[in-house]
Amino acid sequence: MNRSGRVDVALPAVVLLLVVLAEVATGRQQVVLGLSVMAPLVAATSLSRQATVAYAATTFVVATLLGLYSQQYTAESVVAQSIRLLAVVLAGFLAVATCERRLRNEAHTARLSAEAAATRAAVRTSETLQRALLGSPPRVPGMETAARYLPGEQGAQVGGDWYDAFPLPDGRMMLVIGDVAGHDAPAAATMAQTRGMVRALAGSGHSSPAALLTALDAVLEQMGLDTLVTVAVATVDVRGDGATAPLCWSNAGHLPPVLVRADGTADLLERTPERLLGAGRASAPRTEHEVELHRGDSVLFYTDGLVERRGMTLDDGTAWLLRALSRVGQEQLDRVCDGLLGALGSRGDDDIALLAVRLPR
Questions:
Q1: Sign of torsion over alpha carbons 193, 195, 196, 197
Q2: Alpha carbon distance 52, 31 (integer Å)
Q3: Which pLDDT band, with edges at 50, 70 and 90, does 156 fall under?
Q4: From CA 236, how far away is CA 357, in angstroms rounded?
Q5: How far, in whole angstroms, is CA 25 from its chain's centroid?
Q6: What's residue 189's pLDDT?
Q7: Residues contacting residue 183 through CB under 8 Å, at least 6 positions apart
Q8: What is the Cα–Cα distance from 53 to 51, expressed in whole angstroms?
Q9: Region 121-145: what's the mean pLDDT?
Q10: 75 to 72, 81, 82, 86, 117: CA distances (angstroms)
């Protein structure tokens, strides 16, 4: 027991002892026994229920004996003395009730603290797992890159958002942003599977964005996965030292990337929407689109947590994103990503994944 604990145990006894000494010191005509009720009340603030009951009983005995010592049990004072003793008894019950209430509150607080600690530990574990599934921040040779992942306020749940960038056999780079529906372990598992399949298909010859998504449709159908997945896949060719680099992309139901020109103009790379992965048997071929990146141009790929939040429609969120990128899109990409996340103020309900690339000036 530490020093504070020993003081808590001794304090009610000291109070009771001081009352007895005061009664003796002031003489039999001065009654201070009523102060003895302080002992169980003090015990109720820090000791157990059993100790508080013991002090309440002891206080009643001491008050009775002090009344005898002070010769208060006479015909003239018996009523007043009986009221004093009744007050001591009531104070004892009050002390016990107070002690029980304190103990319940302490138990409730301890339980909440334990649950909060367990939740924090689970969240840290989940975030570590999610980041491990995402791997190291991607790097694109010949381009500036930045990537961020911010989990939503979903407790200990993991999610299905991911980004990726890797080289193709012919030297081009493939950029990927995706989102599996759900915020749980199955969503994270599907995300890891889909991310791995994208890499495998790209390495086996499906090197165009449309061809890769078409092949991915077939693989997911064969696997029988019934989870919806949105993916935007792009290739960028930075071989050589030309003033431009072609960006080719195909979009399976994902939010359109944002192109930020060197002059600060921000535009959506928006085309006719195409079906999500896993949304049924393919009824139309995947299409792909191309745009020339000039020196200083940037492209931001993102998941819906960035633009879909409480009190913000998708159109409002997209308009906010374009305005923000028009202001800060020319800063270093790390600062751009951090600035966008910081401008949101807090985590939303959904995860956020960002992948930004820039063709250096």
A1: positive
A2: 24
A3: very low
A4: 10
A5: 63
A6: 81
A7: 152, 154, 157, 158, 159, 160, 350, 351
A8: 5
A9: 71
A10: 9, 10, 11, 17, 63
10-55 confidence digits (pLDDT tens): 777 777 777 777 766 665 555 555 667 777 888 888 888 888 888 8
- Residue 168 has what pLDDT? 92
Helix (H) or strand (E) holding 148: strand 144-150
Q: Where are the domains of the chain?
A: 3-112, 135-358
CA dihedral defined by 176, 350, 267, 324, rounded to 10 degrees? -130
Look up the pTM and report it: 0.67
| Consecutive H or E run containing 234 | strand 229-236
Q: Which two tokens stand for residue 169?
A: 């056999």
Q: What is the CATH number of domain 135-358?
A: 3.60.40.10
Pairwise CA distance, residues 46 & 341, whole Å: 46
DSSP-derived 3-state class of residue 342: helix
